[in-house]
Amino acid sequence: MLINLTNITRFYQMGAEEVRALRGVSFAVNRGEWVAIVGQSGSGKSTLMNVIGCLDTPTSGQYQLNGRDVSRLPDDELADIRNREIGFIFQTFQLLPRDTALANVELPLVYRGLSAKDRHARARLALEKVQLADRMKHRPNELSGGQRQRVAIARALVTEPSLLLADEPTGNLDSATGEEIIRLFEQLHRAGHTICLVTHEPKLAARCPRAIRLRDGEIVADGPGEQVAMNGAAPRLGQVLSAS
Amino acid sequence: MRLRIDIFEGSRIALYSLRVNRLRTVLTTAGIGIGVATLLAIIGIIQGLNTSFANQMATIGSSSLYISKFPWVIKGDWWQYRNRKDFTLDQLETVRAQSTYATALAPIAWRIADVGFLSEQVSLVNIMGTRAEYLSVTGWELGSGRFLNETDDENRRSVAVVGMDVVDRLFPNSDPLGATIRVDNRPFRVVGILSRRGKILGDSQDMRVVVPFRTFWSYFGKRRGFSIGVGIARPQDIDAAEDQLVGILRRARNTPPGKPDDFSINRPEQLAATYRQLTGALYGVAIGIGLITLLVGGIGIMNIMLVSVRERTREIGIRRALGARKRTIVLQFLMEAAVVSGIGGLGGTLVGLFGAKLVSEITPLAAVVDPLTVVGGVSFAALVGLLFGIWPAARAANLDPVEALRYE
After folding, report:
1. Which of B12, B17, B308, B322 to mutate to test the interface with A (most CBs of A within 10 A)?
2. Do A88 and B327 touch (CB under 8 A)?
3. pTM of the full predicted structure?
4. Where are the domains of chain A?
5. Which residues of B touch A12 (CB under 8 A)?
6. What is the ipTM for the molecules in this complex?
7. Which CATH number fits domain A33-58+70-235: 3.30.70.100, 2.60.40.1080, 3.40.50.12780, 3.40.50.300?
8. What are phi and psi of A23, to 5 degrees?
9. A34 touches chain B (CB under 8 A)
10. pLDDT in tens, B250-280
11. DSSP tag of B193
């Protein structure tokens, strides 16, 4: 089991009001799984993604990542875990605009403390994996949206993380380019990567082997992607499946 | 290991963003640069003053005392000293006979007069009337020729030893030795030249003509009286020598017991002390101004760093998501602040040194320019940058990564 969430809650204080973004979420993800997390805006899926990505810590509950309890770690250790265990892919790509594609992909390796030589070699390899070997020296504004997202994917892959965490990865792309990116995800899934993909698009969720639907901070469905995507109230098969 | 990487990466990012925001860098840099420049120019000039003053004091002689009617540093009303009785040559001889410390004694009288040679004329020359022992009392040195001797004084000869400024003005192309100059329209034969002594606080010591004491008296009158220069063999005896002199003089001048001394015993250090008192206050004010300028520069750095943090909120979020620790972010911004300030410091140091040099060229103030100041200036500026960068850097590091990633 790579991810094991037990009764995770996350409450915020927004002025005088308490926002209950997550109200007791439990599920597990095995190594090699591709899970979509779907829900409408305000359903808590972004908060959930932040917790899974160790960018945020839960108010209560336990989160085990790769066998380690990470629900209440100090900030420095969370940073190291993000660096080693998680590859982020964002809707808005989140590339550093002034750096070349190569430098962007190298960035997480800088924080791992690798030598410049090692960083170059590994970043080059990662960019080749996403077919961008010929765009290494380009800056993000010289690349198309699809190419930018592929740079971001290369950056996520370069650290060989346990988990790829994608937040609406096709949200800022036209449908043809989006399709290209989804194919890339399918490829990565076949290659054995564990993927968590947050989306509000049923069509995208339908193509994932498994999907979890959130509503008002709670899981309302967990099952095969197709089923959860089409039918918001599918039974929580996922828990049964992952337990087996 | 990790720290080394943080510092290295921090500096790389810092240099990069400085290159990108060139205009901003230049402006921010200018702020700190002006501060450093001001401070350095002031320090340079003051150091220069101190050094030249110390040199001058060393040549006046630290082991001599000057007995005169007026104290050099007057406290209170100066006219209370005017009614003191003049010294007599008998009193001088009494001191010579009774003092066990004095090794040289010279009467010193002076006035200001014009000095001429052929068609050349110099005004405002110090005319000193004294004796052979003048040199060992004051530490002046003879450049060429001879100094005054006993016979010159006894026979009231019209001979003169001249300072270098007088030589420069009256004898640009000829040898003054043997020439006859006019001192206050009386002929004097030049027998010797004093070696150059330079300026004390911008006042040249070499604009002088030294003539025999009795000659001076007969030509210029006894009205002004004279001081007595006393040379002491060992500087450490100077306090004892002064105490002894007070006793000898009070007896010689019949000062009733209980009455204050009707003479003053002066030391060159008194001048030094007054000088230090005077410049100390000036020093403080000037450095205060420099520091305030630097403070303003530092606030400029802080301001620009805050802008920089805000502008790069998203970048900070990205870096944090990819595994940058808070410390890495702090170092990145601290390095940036330090580098901006350091560059400003370098520029400011050069301008400051140049300014100090310029001042010493065009004014009588002599500035000391120490190349080590460059290192000091740069590191001091960088330190100011670090100090004023702490708060913006801490703000950057404490951003919530989730919020930072969402920042537009």
Report:
1. B322
2. no
3. 0.70
4. 33-58+70-235
5. none
6. 0.91
7. 3.40.50.300
8. -125, 70
9. no
10. 999 988 888 888 899 988 777 777 777 877 8
11. E
